[in-house]
Amino acid sequence: MHYETVLREGSAVIVAELAVEVEKQLPGLIDGTVEQIRAEMPVYRDAQFVSLAELRTSVRNNLEFVMRTLRGTEKPDLAQARATGRARALQGAPLPELLRAYRIGLTEVWNRFVELTASGEHQDLRGLVAATSAIWALIDDYAEALTTTYRDTTAEVMLAHQSRRSALVEALFAGGAATEGTLWDIARVLELSLDGTYVVVAAETPRVGHEPLPQIENRLRERHHASAWRLTPDLQVGVVSMRDPAASQVIIGLLRENQTGRIGVSPVFTGLGNTSRALHLARVALSSMMPGTTGMVQFNESPLAGLVASAPEASVQLAHHVLRPILDLSGDDRNVLLLTLRAWFECQGSTKLTSERMFCHPNTIRHRLKRISEELGRSLTDPADIAELGAALRALHMFPDTSHLPSPRDPLR
């Protein structure tokens, strides 16, 4: 401790004698300190964190302890400084203002020592130096103890707040019974509106514990968009307020910055209670992109893709059931027919546009389409067959690694 080191260098008796005299002025010292703190510091004058009564009590307790310490009747025990630091941290008072208030109080003590050593029988330069060294050493010790306790307490508060916030975000995304009776509390803590307009974002993590959208909540806040996020082993998910008309452009721009993988976005929705459903749709949108690719898809951009991605196993079974005869062909035949069928769908069933896309004669396309119809036993004019073929192609595109496997419904393979 700095204060004890200074006293061991001598002058403890001189400091104690001066402290006895200064202590007689303690009531006025307390009043003067409170008055100066309130005059110089609006946070105390306006009682933003501490009432006048609380401020006076704190000043009295600390100054009484300082005087006992300087008189040598009590060993330097910084418990009072630590108690004040903890109390103010819990109240949310700013640390710089707190330290300034301490300096004002101890400076007032020092001024009384200066007055004593500059006049009368106590006029003594040696005494003034000793008192100055002792008081400022005590200020250093107080400031260190107060700052350390304040920061430790703030860290505890932040950790507790973050833990509660994380739990509420988890409940929001879980939905159902998890949010019953807590939705108002969730909205209040997360600073989101119960009946606001939102989107949910689901971004694929590059690896466990790494955010694909670093500092996204802070970056959105800087642009005045409220949001709440959580990180899981495979996804970073967030709900983002859309109350600002320009929010869509801002969100899209931030999501595309340094994009590293797949990002799914839900449709725009209203009501915080619908977040869990929106998360499902955002995950579906993400799954509509092939693994290993980089891109961003909003669910309502491709309803069929969303439907297929929402039921991967059933979609793969559909693809194998509908396309199995072509999948069983040799490599070249299989690839040509699948590419032709996909191009035909993308060209809205136009033989002419399909031929232009595939750089071949329209009659070649007609021949391939006829063979596709024969191989699959399905008509390219029957709406029901066309719907199944479209869904099967979409599933095969989303889950290409399963195209070479036996059909899940065929136990003989």
Automatic annotation (TrEMBL):
The PucR C-terminal helix-turn-helix domain, residue ranges: 337-395
- Describe the location of the CdaR GGDEF-like domain by residue ranges: 178-287
Q: What is this protein called?
A: PucR C-terminal helix-turn-helix domain-containing protein
Q: Enumerate the InterPro entries for this protein.
A: CdaR-like_regulators, CdaR_GGDEF, PucR_C-HTH_dom, PucR_C-HTH_sf, RsbRD_N_dom
What Gene3D superfamilies does UniProt report for this protein, alphabetically? PucR C-terminal helix-turn-helix domain
> Can you tell me which family this protein belongs to?
Belongs to the CdaR family.
Where does the source fall among the domains of life?
Bacteria
Q: Which residues form the RsbT co-antagonist protein RsbRD N-terminal domain?
A: 27-165
Classification of source organism: Bacteria, Bacillati, Actinomycetota, Actinomycetes, Pseudonocardiales
